Amino acid sequence: MESLVKILANKIKYIFGVSGGGLSLSLITELEKRGVKFYPVAHEAAGAIMAGAASGSGETKAAAISIKGPGLANMVPGILLNHYEYRPAITISESYSKDSPFEKMHKRLNHKEVIQVLVKANIDSSNESNINEAIALAETEIPGPIHIELAPQENIFIKKENYNFSAEEEINTILDSIKNTKRPALVLGSVAKRQLKDINWQELKIPVFTTASAKGAINEESDFSAGIITGEIKDLSPEKILVNADLIIAIGLRNTEVVVPHKFDSPLIIFDSVSGRIHRGFNAKEKIMTPDLKNTAEKLLQRLKQKEWGKNLIKNLRDKLDKELLSDFWMPANIFRALNDEKRNNNLTLVLDTGIFCTVGEIVFKAEIPEEFIGSSNGRFMGTAIPTAIGFSIANPDRNVICTAGDGGIRPYFPEIKLAVEENLPIFFILMADSAYGTFSDKAKANNLSERAYKIRNSSWVRAAEAIGCSAHKVKNLEQFINAFEEFSKVKKPMFIEMDFNADKYSLMADNLR
């Protein structure tokens, strides 16, 4: 384990989890001696989610740890989230060694069979070369989690991808062909946040779209930021603007980053640093795969800077969205608008769970930089906002975090708020409640389906938050919400805010969005 301690101490800053009395406790102790702080969590999955959120930029900054068997099984939801969201977190578990007799069955589980589809590598702590290779692989596009067993194993694996890259001549030919377009549009996937951080897309005067996980790759306050594409197209979806384009250019548009991949009406060219089935569903006219995506993107930027169109179309869509969402003063859109107005002065990051409010929040809250937004944008994984907010906050102590969840998402990891209280983290927890699973309650009511499947009795969590030491308030209007936020801005300590919305209006508020 000495090699593992040395490598991790030089790589990670934080470790989360539930320890046992064996090697996991020893590893935590040795890492703490070397400055890696351990954060005990209430549930192992939350530890993995926190480690992933701390590594959300694409750089491995944290690990999560558990005991063998049930501990590893409990971590699986968090590992799955990191797999969905391209987060290169390390998870570590105690384990039976390859020499353990099979009759020793206490807490025995075949770890490899459980997690092999979720991680990029499953290795043990005995081989320094394997550890270094696996950690490097975690950060390699497409980023993802790796798992380390604390006891020697026989059936370890390190997944390696061999990509087929386009010839330089082919790339230049495609780039040159863009000169002939009059109305090109650009779509950015999350790879733009990891590999293309230094490219200033704000220089463009054409419609620039992002996937939800690429939110903040372009300043969304820009006149040419056209919104988020998901493939779920309704009357007020940003995809409606794309029908006016004569060419769609995408960087890192992958079927894992939309809800529904589909063929666009206009020709599509995809640029990416990886190849394979991940682009299926878009029916691209051309797919250009390059190991030097940044260089290609810089050339692309120079060609697209010569074009200009779409500003009025984007403004018209924004005006329609404002009319659709902001007309009712006491609905989630006005809460997100208030937070958007405060983001610059308060260094805010919005963390969203999933639900109808998430759809609204992604539209109304404008991320100017990637650090202003994080969520389960690919997996749409309900319940992950609280541990995500905590992990992000610990890794980004300069930012004030707004964590928003609904009736369903508040439940799974609510006890983790206690860690935020113990660490005095500047997190503003918001519960947007309609006393139901709003995403499908309207359809369930219309079809006379079981109320027990979508209605939530006693949706309040204020007293529970108070019981674990968190300042908590129930607010009933926008003025009360703003007052509570101003109080949080002064103290910068955990605060829990609960608000109830009209269930009928709430269930319909995203009907025309996606």
Key phrases:
514 residues, alpha/beta, Rossmann fold, 3 domains, 7-stranded mixed beta sheet, 6-stranded parallel beta sheet, 19 helices, 36% helix
What would you say this structure looks like, in words?
By secondary structure, the protein is α/β, with parallel strands linked by helices. The protein folds into 3 domains: 2-158, Thiamin diphosphate (ThDP)-binding fold, Pyr/PP domains (Rossmann fold), CATH 3.40.50; 168-311, Rossmann fold (3-Layer(aba) Sandwich); 328-508, 3-Layer(aba) Sandwich (Rossmann fold), CATH 3.40.50. It is built from 19 helices and 19 strands. The strands form 3 sheets. It has a 7-stranded mixed sheet with strand order 2-1-3-4-6-5-7, with helices on both faces. A 6-stranded parallel sheet has the order 10-9-8-11-12-13. A 6-stranded parallel sheet has the order 15-14-16-17-19-18, sandwiched between helices. Helix 3 (44-54) runs parallel beside helix 4 and helix 12 (332-346) runs parallel beside helix 18. The radius of gyration is 23 Å and the shape is globular. The termini are far apart. The relative contact order is 0.10.
